[in-house]
Amino acid sequence: MEQKKESLRIEIQGISQSFGEKKVLDNIQLNIGDGEIFALLGPSGAGKTTLLKILTGQLVQTEGTAKILGTDTKKLTDKEYSKIGMMLDTSGLYERLSCYDNLLLFTQIYGISKNYIEEALLKVGLMEAKKRPVNKLSKGMKQRLVLARALMNDPWILFLDEPTSGLDPASTREIHKLIFSLKEKGTTVFLTTHNMEEAEKLCDNIALLHEGNIVEYGNPKEICRRYNHQNKIEILLKNGKQLSLCNSESSAKEIYGYLQEGIVETIHSTEPNLENVFVELTGRSFE
Amino acid sequence: MNPKKISAIFQKQVKETLKNKEVLIQFLMFPILVVIMENSIKVEGMPEHYFVQLFATMYIGMAPLVSMTSIIAEEKEKNTLRMLMLSNVKPMEYLIGIGSYILLACMIGACVFAATGEYKGRELAEFLCIMMVGILISMLTGAAIGVWSKNAMSASSVSVPVMMVFSFLPMIASFNEHVKKVSDFVWSGQINNLMNSLGAIDFDMQTVLVLLANGGVVFVLFQIAYKKCGLA
After folding, report:
1. Which of A185, A228, B6, B161 is most buried (most C-beta within 10 Å)?
2. What pairing do the DSSP bridges indicate for beta strands A157-161 and A188-193?
3. How far apart are alpha carbons A145 and A133 in whole angstroms?
4. How far is the first Cα of chain A from the last one, in angstroms, to the nearest whole number?
5. Structural domain of residue A102, as residue ranges?
6. Which residues lie across from A217 on neighbouring strands?
7. Does the residue A88 lie in any domain?
8. Average pLDDT of the segment spanning A192-209
9. E strands along A77-181, which residues?
């Protein structure tokens, strides 16, 4: 688990958390750098939200240290909080107030210009719902409003807990686009998800969490390649015939032949996805 | 403490309450009732401004306590308070923001009572001062219950009986001597006694001590609740 040590924004050293007899996190070690999109993946109850709560200073860990921007999470001050954005599992929106008024409150708290409200609403595609009370919004719209609020203080680190859970594909795509644009600005994004595709698509690095332990860490594509034991190539021909060939010189000639004949419908390598890797490591399915 | 954050919380609460019938009715019910009763019921032998004084005591025992409790408990339940705390809002900034809003709203209600009672000069000054002292103690009681409670349901199961004791004790005391003895040691009882001698109030030691002691006890209870449960 070699990780970069330069420009660390989040450092987690030997974090353990117990609730009574139950150990929810066990000796977690992680480093997350500038502009990195990192995902903590695991099934429900794996300890993702617990770690997120520790990192945002909502929960004090039983053992170990966690640092945000070089400051111990037990001692986070206004200075650090002003550089953190959060989109938590529960929205925490004022349901009776409009989208605009919800954001207005936070511009006043952060001491930033009201002009940002319309900019933020435009960014998350909620300009038309500006005056609509939050209790009249769909779940996807609420998620986007929470994201707009999390971005309000132009954070250095953005914590997202299941950011696209329950969203339709169009809203999910919008949120992914937004996360990518944040990365370009150098924002570090720490997200928890149980959506493997999302993690593969978005993240520079991921950690697979199982019963409080990190069972795998790294770049999602590299992880998938590492667990590609079959090392095969699957071909679907236009006549409907399916072939599974070894990744070898002789197969290359055979594939070349099919390609020359123009009879190849699809061609795929057989590396596993993150879900398969998780099942291989833990013997359990992800859901 | 940051006055801008307190002001933001205050403004948020004004907008929230205008759309929250449950809290809004707390502020409006007794002032409306007193205007109707005072102008429509005249019974021979009834003390002057009987309804104003009776309902004013009830209003103090009910509106600040219930609204403070329900606002804090709802914010805890819906995690909005947690978001505020995670956005650099200090617990005291939040409590002052909410508290100043409730104090203002209740004082507007107190002005309706004063206008209905046609108080002027010393009477008016005394009435508003008594109202303010009562509202502050009642608010602190509500804050302690709100902080102690995990959600709106558990908050109302505590605040309703407490509110009924403080609101109705002075009225029951006027019919029963034994209850009167107890009522004299409760802040709402003393507030009612002061209401009954408006214009000629002579603060005796018992009144001052009871108000201070009740205020002190409520403050200690609030501190315990705050240390034990926190705000978010």
Report:
1. B6
2. parallel
3. 12
4. 26
5. 93-151
6. A207
7. no
8. 88
9. 84-87, 157-161
Whole-number average pLDDT of chain A: 86
For residue A105, being part of any structural domain is answered with yes
Cα–Cα–Cα angle for A240, A241, A247, rounded to 5 degrees: 130
Same domain for A206 and A281: yes
Q: Are residues A195 and A277 in the same domain?
A: yes
For residue A55, give how far its alpha carbon lies from the nearest alpha carbon of chain B (Å): 12
Residues A97 and A40 grouped into a single domain: no
Domain boundaries, chain B: 3-229
Site of tokens 């419908």: A265
Q: Does A245 touch chain B (CB under 8 A)?
A: no
Question: What's the pLDDT tens digit per position in B96-135?
Answer: 999 999 999 999 999 999 999 888 888 898 899 989 999 9
A238/chain B closest Cα distance in angstroms: 56
Reduce the DSSP state of residue A10 to 3 states and report it.
strand
Examine residue A17 and state whether it is found in any structural domain, yes or no: yes
* Interchain proximity A97–B12, CB inside 8 Å: yes
Q: Are residues A105 and A67 in the same domain?
A: no
For B135-193, the pLDDT digits (tens) are 999 999 999 998 888 888 888 888 888 888 888 888 888 888 888 888 888 888 888 88
Same domain, A113 and A214: no
Considering its fold, how many domains does chain A have in total? 3
Residues 15-44 of A with CB under 8 A from B: none
Q: Which of A230-234, B31-35, B69-73, B114-118 has the lowest mean pLDDT?
A: A230-234
Residue given tokens 């300009």 in the structure block: A127
**Angle of helix B121-148 relative to helix B91-116, nearest 10 degrees?**
140
